[in-house]
Specification:
alpha+beta; OB fold (Dihydrolipoamide Acetyltransferase, E2P); 5-stranded mixed β-barrel; two-stranded antiparallel ribbon; globular
């Protein structure tokens, strides 16, 4: 029984991909490009627009912009974010660079 439990734990850990930090993503965006990641951190500046909004997300390692088509979080919220990494975003003449596209967000208390 102990062997089965140990084997199950090893398989579970092997299936868990390393979750990056904002620093990991911004320093090596090609490694994470188009991958879905989970991050926990705080919401900074929020910019709302019709259809799509962006907000600044930060963890202990850095800051990154997040695009959302859903409701906009409040400044100062602590959130668990699931998002897809994109290496490039140009909005008119402005190149935002590496950013996240939100797929799920939950407020952390």
């Amino acid at each position: 029984m102990a062997v089965a439990s140990l084997l199950a734990a090893v398989l579970l850990l092997a299936g868990c991909a390393k979750q990056p930090t904002v620093y990991d993503i911004t320093m090596n965006p090609s490694e994470w490009n188009r991958q879905e990641v989970r991050l926990e951190g705080d919401v900074g500046l929020v910019v709302s627009a019709i259809g799509t909004s962006v907000y600044e997300f930060s963890d202990d390692t850095g800051k990154i912009w997040v695009l959302t088509r859903g409701s906009v979080p409040s400044i100062g919220d602590r959130v668990m974010l699931t998002a897809r990494v994109n290496e490039r975003l140009s909005v008119g003449p402005v190149d935002v660079g590496v950013h996240l596209v939100e797929t799920d967000r939950r407020r952390v208390k």
